[in-house]
Design a protein that fits this description.
Blueprint (H helix, E strand, L loop, with lengths): L1 H16 L6 E5 L3 E5 L6 E4 L5 E7 L2 E6 L3 E8 L5 E10 L5 E6 L2 E7 L3 E3 L7 H8 L5 H9 L1
Length: 148
Amino acid sequence: MRSMLAAFAALAAVASAAPAAADVTVVEIDHATRIKLNGAAASVFTGNASIADVAIINSNTMMVIGKGFGVTNVVALDGSGRTIMDRRVQVSPGADGRMTLYRGVVANNFACSPMCERTPMPGEPNAVFEPYNTPVETYQKRQSAGSK
């Protein structure tokens, strides 16, 4: 009986050392989530700005924007430099209205609502983004290129 109590106490100690689920904010990519702070923030930082970004609404409210897949953290400091919040942020893919079409090993992502449109996502090959990075040619250039 004492060994069971000791095992239970050890398990409780390990569980209390693990971070609480409430300390993790899950944000879908290309979406924002509002976080209310318990004090007035003077400065806010993100661990990795390519994963999540922060927009300050007022000294007690901020928005976390999911920019890339992964996990980072957001830290808010008060005017004296004390930490008023240090929260993990997990950016996940949104499942609503999204579809991935695989052609061999190449993934093609689409947003469907109600029509499906191609939406390149982080992690896809750079060639996928090329049509979106090049400037649009004028009508005259496209017309003369098509006649050759």
